[in-house]
Write a sequence for this structure.
């Protein structure tokens, strides 16, 4: 049956290899079960419920990817998108989290429609690859900054905006120790190093009385706290606690969820399929639409469960390195995430000192995307730089995208390199200019 479903022999792999590859991928991305609730709880979502939703969304998404697209790609709520959900949409715009979940669902619907009608290819072709890399790096800096703030390593300062915190305080000291432990495990290439580091610091915090264990099984009351709580009608009108005249805000929120998800997917797909040798001779990715359909459906399912946008994880490359070549790898990851559901109550007891180092180092790894930017060419380097710095400094991925795309279009015009084929790039730039004017008047 497995041979018939996944074509193991045709891909030069075996059941044992695929199962081991799935375990490897799971261990490298299991940290999301602790980190995602830590971020979304700042938006007011219950930690236990988000932990359960994270397991359900990652499990369902990875199973769907393996069974429909037959690729070794694992899915889970995306880092960066969860930060945008919390700090820009909910806390920055004052949108209730139920309404924000409705926006996530709508972005999944939009992603599915764009994929089915073929518009996705136009959008991907219109955005310069350097901006894909810059957005990923900017989100990395954003996430790292959140981790440093949560740890108390960086604190607010009225004179300089931010300053170094008191590193002798328990949270900051434990977070620094966590950085050393996780960093060392990463250097030694220990599988699951991120998760191991979180557990060690959490155990130290429990032993020192800085946090307390929360034993117990999964309760349906925990799951029901976020499941099916999304408010799509409010998302379409955004009247709930967000003031009037916010049709532009709805478009912006869905646009960012959609585009960053698209960027995450394209970047991950290219990297992982190239590493696995799954691209065809022309460099195209077979069954691409199936991959994107699985991702969009997983995003909608995640919103229904109570978590932010679900996307493909670059950690899937670790499973590919271990020999994973088919969807059986993803199915294994999905099953392991569903089994993890039984332990989600423990996530409530994981202190900020344990999750903050993971955020910082995940951000550090994401900055590696800047190696793809041609820093010698000002027409490429300037938009990339603006994208990277604007995202963390304004706490908004949307602002970074806006500065990057607009400046790239303007510099292309100045250099006389505008082509008819770039029409969508200039349309997007024009929309961002309208957005800046709208925000200024608002």
């Amino acid at each position: 049956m497995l041979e018939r479903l996944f074509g193991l022999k045709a891909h030069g792999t075996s059941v044992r290899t695929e199962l081991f590859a799935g375990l490897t991928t799971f261990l490298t991305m299991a940290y999301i079960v602790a980190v995602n609730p830590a971020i979304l709880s700042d938006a007011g979502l219950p930690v236990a419920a988000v932990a359960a939703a994270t397991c359900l969304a990652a499990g369902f998404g990875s199973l769907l990817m393996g069974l429909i697209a037959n690729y070794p790609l694992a899915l889970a709520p995306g880092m960066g998108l969860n930060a945008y959900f919390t700090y820009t949409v909910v806390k920055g715009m004052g949108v209730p989290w139920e309404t924000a979940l409705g926006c996530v669902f709508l972005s999944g619907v939009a992603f599915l429609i764009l994929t089915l009608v073929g518009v996705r290819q136009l959008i991907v072709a219109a955005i310069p690859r350097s901006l894909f890399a810059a957005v990923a790096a900017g989100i990395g800096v954003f996430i790292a900054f959140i981790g440093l703030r949560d740890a108390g390593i960086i604190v607010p300062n009225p004179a300089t905006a931010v300053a170094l915190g008191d590193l002798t305080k328990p949270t900051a000291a434990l977070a620094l120790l966590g950085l050393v432990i996780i960093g060392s495990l990463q250097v030694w290439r220990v599988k699951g190093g991120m998760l191991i580091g979180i557990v060690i610091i959490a155990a130290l915090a429990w032993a020192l009385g800085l946090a307390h264990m929360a034993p117990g099984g999964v309760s349906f009351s925990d799951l029901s706290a976020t499941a099916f709580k999304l408010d799509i009608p409010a998302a379409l009108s955004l009247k709930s606690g967000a003031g009037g005249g916010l049709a532009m805000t709805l478009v912006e929120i869905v646009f960012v969820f959609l585009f960053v998800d698209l960027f995450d997917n394209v970047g991950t797909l290219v990297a992982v399929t190239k590493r696995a040798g799954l691209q065809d001779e022309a460099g195209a990715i077979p069954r691409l639409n199936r991959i994107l359909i699985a991702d969009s459906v997983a995003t909608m399912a995640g919103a229904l469960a109570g978590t932010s946008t679900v996307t493909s994880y670059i950690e899937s490359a670790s499973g590919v390195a271990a020999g994973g070549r088919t969807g059986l790898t993803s199915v294994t990851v999905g099953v392991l995430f569903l089994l993890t559901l039984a332990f989600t109550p423990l996530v409530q007891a994981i202190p900020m000192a344990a999750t903050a180092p993971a955020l910082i180092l995940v951000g550090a790894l994401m900055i590696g995307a800047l190696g793809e930017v041609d820093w010698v060419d000002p027409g490429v380097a300037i938009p990339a730089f603006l994208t990277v710095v604007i995202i963390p400094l304004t706490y908004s991925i949307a602002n970074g995208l806006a500065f990057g795309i607009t400046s790239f279009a303007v510099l292309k015009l100045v250099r006389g390199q505008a082509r008819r084929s770039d029409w969508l790039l200039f349309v997007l730039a024009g929309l961002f200019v309208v957005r800046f004017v709208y925000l200024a008047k608002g």
